[in-house]
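Dear H.,

Thanks for agreeing to be a second pair of eyes. The structure we're designing against is below in token form, covering all 756 positions.
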């Protein structure tokens, strides 16, 4: 079904795969470097690289996009850094806090801030519930050969020939002040599609199957996935879009697909034929690895809680419900040890041996496409979703999609069957929409099923779970009253009518002031919109206390800063910081504040606390100490932090509370590591962490000198249970600018210093 190559491969004429060993016999190995330049990725990156060096890239993008959880912080950062106008088209969508249901006026205050910013700096403002961020960008911004940068991790428009990247807000702020996105040239992985999907198999089934194969082994981590092969020909563009947006869950850096007449037709329908060009690899292209996917062997699948990689075929789950659900339940509950709450999956197996779920949702950039919702309508037409506990909600991805579904009667078909038709809203993807009852299991065609992505609060005894499925199988389950059913098990006459894009929906409501900013416009601030606090520059040495210690295999950004109801406070750094690690380590904020208070007293009064005085006495026995040249900060240790969202608040909230570093065995994503750097937290890596524990003190020697001299590691001393032991902390790869940002203490400080 899905095979991974152990080494690099050559692709000949866009069809034939030749492995390294065979390439040597054919004499192709001499063309490896030429072949690297034969990928689609190379051509796009070269066109956007501002320097000749293709190893250490300095990229500028064609456009950017943010939503209403991220854009206030980005614009505030850019303003503080000297921004006078948006130097490129910048789309500001309102699809996360759009319900304005929590926090009084503060959500709509953010929207009015964005509208005024679009007028002042020249941006594109998409009002609430008009479109989810990625639907709008597919319809209006993506094009063949373009690059788009977004402050949402699912910024993926590869199926339209666009190399799109989801990053933390700091990277967007850099673009807004005329700087570049700096990265080493990524490895490129061939995703070779062959065959044709079977009956009832949808794009989420394909996506989940790939994620299940490559996430845990890191096969595509921080790399580009390049989709080619005869299988692409069998996939409609919206089918490709739904697969493509899920590549984020593999931890790849970006994705790109070959383009064809279907791509051209999609862009033409949206009035953008000029954005089409044929894209394919050269006759000889070299890839650093290969994922071969036989679409004909993909089955209807499900990702059980609590990760999109926890994938099983629905068939195998139904054949072995006791064994599989017991294992999934045990693995999920590891995340909630000590919180007095557990996820109960075994109760979903009823007396008849069947699995019953409580809720179905099809939504957002992955589920709410025209093709997916037409398939749902075909399945539920003339049927009933039942009048019991099970409920079905439908969220079209954009108002043009909604309008077309209304015109062709699909909305009537779904609503008549008992489905609730919602607005264009990302809430079900991050825990702010259709929150199920305690103990329930929701099946969703959305992007993630991390802990709390359904909106529950384990710390308050509330627990629910999400399993990811394709829209078709969700609809099949709905007409069976919640009994888990694969779309391949039922008989449906699928039809997808021609889609007519109504651009007037946007023309009559969206403000497009791109390139037409008016500096006389006044920014509209609400009472919850606050400036960033000041952050100290890096000191000669650094004294850290470990105030959270997390040994989970992976720590998501949702665990670092919860999504859902906290999103209302994204524009208020101080208030939002109170939620940091609240669902993973409720004691973190108090412990971090204690260290922050110690540092504030040291800085203002030159007085050390009794605890720190004793700590220095212990370190003085093995190394020279200089308290007057040392910032006292907090740090967290996590084995592999940062999987998931691009939200910079996962890092900035720690910094607001006085954090100076993160320590990890590795970072789950580049974007989280970049967020740490941009907020002035050193992204330390460590091999053996056995000497570190909660409450341990770490003295990092000569860190400023190491960063200034391009050093790759520093000596540190760990004080644990009265014993001091030396250790080594490494930085990983850092660009010159990233070193300067860390030295200055934050991206904002770096720009202030640059403008002096």
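And this is the sequence the design step returned. I haven't edited it by hand at all.
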């Amino acid at each position: 079904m899905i095979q991974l190559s152990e080494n690099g491969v050559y692709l000949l004429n866009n069809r034939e795969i030749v492995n390294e060993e065979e390439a040597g016999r054919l004499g192709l190995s001499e063309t490896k470097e030429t072949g690297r330049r034969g990928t689609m990725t190379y051509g796009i990156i070269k066109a956007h690289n501002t320097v000749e060096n293709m190893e250490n890239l300095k990229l500028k993008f064609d456009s950017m996009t943010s939503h209403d959880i991220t854009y206030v912080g980005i614009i505030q950062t850019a303003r503080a850094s000297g921004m006078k106008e948006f130097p490129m088209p910048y789309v500001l969508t309102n699809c996360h806090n759009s319900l304005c249901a929590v926090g009084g006026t503060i959500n709509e205050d953010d929207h009015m801030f964005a509208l005024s910013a679009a007028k002042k700096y020249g941006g594109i403002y998409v009002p609430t519930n008009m479109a989810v961020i990625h639907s709008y960008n597919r319809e209006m911004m993506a094009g063949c050969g373009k690059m788009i940068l977004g402050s949402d991790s699912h910024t993926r428009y590869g199926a339209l020939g666009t190399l799109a990247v989801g990053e933390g807000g700091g990277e967007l702020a850099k673009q807004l002040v005329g700087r570049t996105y700096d990265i080493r040239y990524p490895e490129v992985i061939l995703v070779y599609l062959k065959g044709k999907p079977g009956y009832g198999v949808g794009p989420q089934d394909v996506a989940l199957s790939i994620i299940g194969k490559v996430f845990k082994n890191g096969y595509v981590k921080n790399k580009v996935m390049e989709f080619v092969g005869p299988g692409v020909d069998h996939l409609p563009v919206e089918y490709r879009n739904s697969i493509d947006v899920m590549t984020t869950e593999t931890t790849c850096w970006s994705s790109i697909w070959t383009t064809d007449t279907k791509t051209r037709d999609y862009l033409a329908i949206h009035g953008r034929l000029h954005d089409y060009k044929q894209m394919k690899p050269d006759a000889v292209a070299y890839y650093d690895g290969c994922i071969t996917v036989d679409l004909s062997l993909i089955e209807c699948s499900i990702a059980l809680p609590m990760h999109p990689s926890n994938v099983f075929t629905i068939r195998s789950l139904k054949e072995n419900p006791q064994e599989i659900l017991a294992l999934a339940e045990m693995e999920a509950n590891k995340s909630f040890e000590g919180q007095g709450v557990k996820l109960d999956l075994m109760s979903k197996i009823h007396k008849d041996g069947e699995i019953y779920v409580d809720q179905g949702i099809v939504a957002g950039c992955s589920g709410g496409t025209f093709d997916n919702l037409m398939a749902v309508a075909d399945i539920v037409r003339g049927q009933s979703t039942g009048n019991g506990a099970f409920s079905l909600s439908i969220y079209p991805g954009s108002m043009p999609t909604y309008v077309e579904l209304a015109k062709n009667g699909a909305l009537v078909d779904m609503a008549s069957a008992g489905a609730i038709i919602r607005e264009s809203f990302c809430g079900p993807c991050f825990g702010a929409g259709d929150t199920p009852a305690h103990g329930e299991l929701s099946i969703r065609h959305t992007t993630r099923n991390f802990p709390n992505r359904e909106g529950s609060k384990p710390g308050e005894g509330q627990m629910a779970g999400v399993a990811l499925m394709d829209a078709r199988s969700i609809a099949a389950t709905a007409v069976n009253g919640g009994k888990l059913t694969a779309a391949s098990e039922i008989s449906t006459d699928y039809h997808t009518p021609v889609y007519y894009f109504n651009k007037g929906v946007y023309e009559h409501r969206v403000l497009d002031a791109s390139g037409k900013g008016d500096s006389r416009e006044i920014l509209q601030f609400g009472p919850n919109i606050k400036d960033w606090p000041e952050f100290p520059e890096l000191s000669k040495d650094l004294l850290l206390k470990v105030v959270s210690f997390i040994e989970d295999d992976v720590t998501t950004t949702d665990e670092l800063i919860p999504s859902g109801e906290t999103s209302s406070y994204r524009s208020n750094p101080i208030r939002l910081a109170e939620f940091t690690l609240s669902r993973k380590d409720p004691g973190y904020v108090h412990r971090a504040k204690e260290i922050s208070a110690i540092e504030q007293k040291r800085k203002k009064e030159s007085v050390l606390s009794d605890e720190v005085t004793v700590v220095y006495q212990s370190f003085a026995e093995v190394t020279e100490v200089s308290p007057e040249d040392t910032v006292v900060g907090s740090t967290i240790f996590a084995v592999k932090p940062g999987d998931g969202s691009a939200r910079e608040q996962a890092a900035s909230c720690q910094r607001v509370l006085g954090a100076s570093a993160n320590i990890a065995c590795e970072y789950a994503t580049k974007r989280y590591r970049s967020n740490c750097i941009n907020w002035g937290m050193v992204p330390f890596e460590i091999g053996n962490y056995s000497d570190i524990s909660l409450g341990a003190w770490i003295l990092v020697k000569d860190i400023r000198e190491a960063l200034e001299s391009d050093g790759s590691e520093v000596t540190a001393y760990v004080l644990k249970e009265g014993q001091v032991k030396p250790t080594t902390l490494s930085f990983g790869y850092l660009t010159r600018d990233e070193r300067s940002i860390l030295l200055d203490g934050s991206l904002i400080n770096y720009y202030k210093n640059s403008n002096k």
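Two observations from my side: The chain has 28 helices and 32 strands. The mean pLDDT is 94.

Warmly,
E.
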